[in-house]
Amino acid sequence: MEDHHKKMQSDSCDPDRPTHPGTFPTCEAGRSDHQPAERSVDFPVSVVLPAGGHRERTGLQTPKQFCLFMGRPLISYTIQAFERVSWIQSIVVVVAREHMDLMTDIVQQFQHTKVRVVPGGSTRHRSIYNGVLALGEEGRLVADKPKVVLIHDAVRPFVEEDFLYKIAMAAKEQGAAGAIRPLVSTVIATTSEGYLDHSLERAKYRASEMPQGFTYDVIYQAYQKCSESDFEFGTECLHLALQYCGTNAKLIQGPPTLWKVTYKRDLAAAESIIKDTLSRSACAITGGSAQAVTLAGALQEAVGALNMLHLGGPDVSNGRIWLSRAGLGPRDRLGSVSVSVDRLIGAIPLRWPELAVIPDLTGENGWYLLKDWNFIQVSVNRSCLSEVEALLTDLEAAKQALLHPLVVILVLLSGSDELSVSGRAVEPEAIMDLASAAKLRNILLYGIQLHQSKRDYVIFRMVAHLSCLAHNKTAGNTCSVPCKERLERSTRRSDAGSLAAINHGQARFHAHRSHTSSHSRPDPEQTVLRGAGRILYY
Ligand SMILES: Nc1ccn([C@@H]2O[C@H](COP(=O)(O)OP(=O)(O)OP(=O)(O)O)[C@@H](O)[C@H]2O)c(=O)n1
Ligand SMILES: O=C(CO)[C@H](O)[C@H](O)COP(=O)(O)O
């Protein structure tokens, strides 16, 4: 055990917990033996994902690895976390025999390219061993065999490339490596009568997590040599490597998100992490049209105000509520636009810390495709569908939607009495078809149609000014000078109706702050079409 502890090096330190003074060396925060900066992996690495479990502890009908999160099974998220890593060459997914077809369908539907599906065994170790054997079969020539095998539970979907890199490098050097986490509870031993026998000193121990990495030869030999009892009751591959190959694993502390989805409540936690990890910023593409630029500018200011609201302390939903009530009644043109802007921001559970406005994605702007951002395509012409199709193709090529879903919102500016060149309205079905296809590529497409009038300029500016007011009210009249100046300038410039609307919005802001639930009430003035994960607003 002592040798085992010595292997816990600087990575094992956690500022949140007491360390054992005599056992663990202190660490520099963030320091690790393998900085991922270069990430040159010049040896073959393959992965085994055991997914052959049967759901006992969740108590659900569906094994947890096949539970859907935003329309995608958990196993697919885990596969993507590995598939997007360029230096990982192949992934063996091990599933129960009765799930072979289901898993094959998932691989096809979500376009996994590095995956091979093999049947599992009656225990986790037997499943992993099947996966290791399958990798061995793949490499008929010795040179084709992976040098390092990463093993990772299919039900631990949140693993990042940096950490995989650390494990792979350490496994190559040491023969075995594994993730650890500090213990949350103290571990105690009980007597057969159910009394306390003894208690372990918590600071000396760690929880063993996944991923783990082994050289192919170490893990293969360990399974060759281990006993039936190990296969039946064992829970720790690192232990097999130590016991049967004399390989002391290097232990590296991983992030808390490596935790295993085990109970039903973990499914809810996983869903919340998946939603939380949706990219938080968006890029509005205007195509250069003046109307689109005006709308995008207004949105930019509105989003900025929402963020200020959020930073100021109150729940951002106040901001959303305020925006939805900022204009006049829903029948009023002013009101309809401000409601739509709110819908644009509030239709999906996202906050955008940044909203960039660009004419298109050519030249240097192509950089936005690599940023893992969401997109708002503002269109004023009938070729909007081909514009958004091109955007979806670009996003797919950039592979940003591999791990987390991206959101694309198509805003159709139409119906304008003299400004519009939109021609015939776009059929909702066309957008819904596009949304269904996009969803398979992990892109959530929303369509919003805005009807315009000549007064839109005033409307959009008003939305922006109301955002300033929202901040002003919420943050205790600390609105910045430039913001106040803009408001005064616009007040001098704008017509009486606009000024009245601002004041009206202010009053409504007070009235509705305590009625946050009204945000989710269905709006009879809006036609909402729901399909496979997309909403089309009119
Ligand atoms: N015969 C088995 C048993 C488990 N696993 C996999 O090992 C991982 C960790 O196992 P666990 O959390 O225990 O999953 P289940 O066996 O599904 O859960 P339970 O023990 O609650 O039945 C999971 O990805 C699971 O699918 C496997 O491949 N083959
Ligand atoms: O953490 C692990 C290995 O270190 C495994 O995920 C864990 O042992 C799996 O066990 P079980 O299938 O009983 O949940």
Description of the structure:
The chain is of the alpha/beta class and 538 residues long. Helices cover 40% and strands 17% of the residues. The chain has helices at 2-6, 74-83, 100-109, 124-138, 161-174, 216-225, 228-233, 237-245, 264-276, 290-311, 316-324, 333-346, 384-398, 428-440, 456-474, 481-493, 496-512, and strands at residues 45-51, 68-69, 72-73, 88-95, 115-119, 148-151, 176-182, 188-190, 196-199, 206-215, 250-253, 282-285, 355-358, 374-379, 406-414, 443-451, 528-530, 535-537. Strand 4 (88-95), helix 3 (100-109) and strand 5 (115-119) form a beta-alpha-beta unit.
Question: Tally of extended strands?
Answer: 18
Helical element count? 17
Please state roughly what percent of the residues sit in beta strands, choosing from under 5%, 5-15%, 15-25%, 25-35%, 35-45% or over 45%.
15-25%
Helix content: 25-40%
Structural class call reads alpha/beta
Q: What is the alpha-carbon Rg in Å?
A: 28 Å
Strand order of the largest sheet: 5-4-1-6-10-7-11
Chemical compounds bound to the protein? cytidine-5'-triphosphate, ribulose-5-phosphate
Largest sheet: 7 strands, mixed
Termini separation:
66 Å
Average pLDDT rating: 71
**Poorly predicted spans:** 1-37, 308-352, 416-422, 462-538
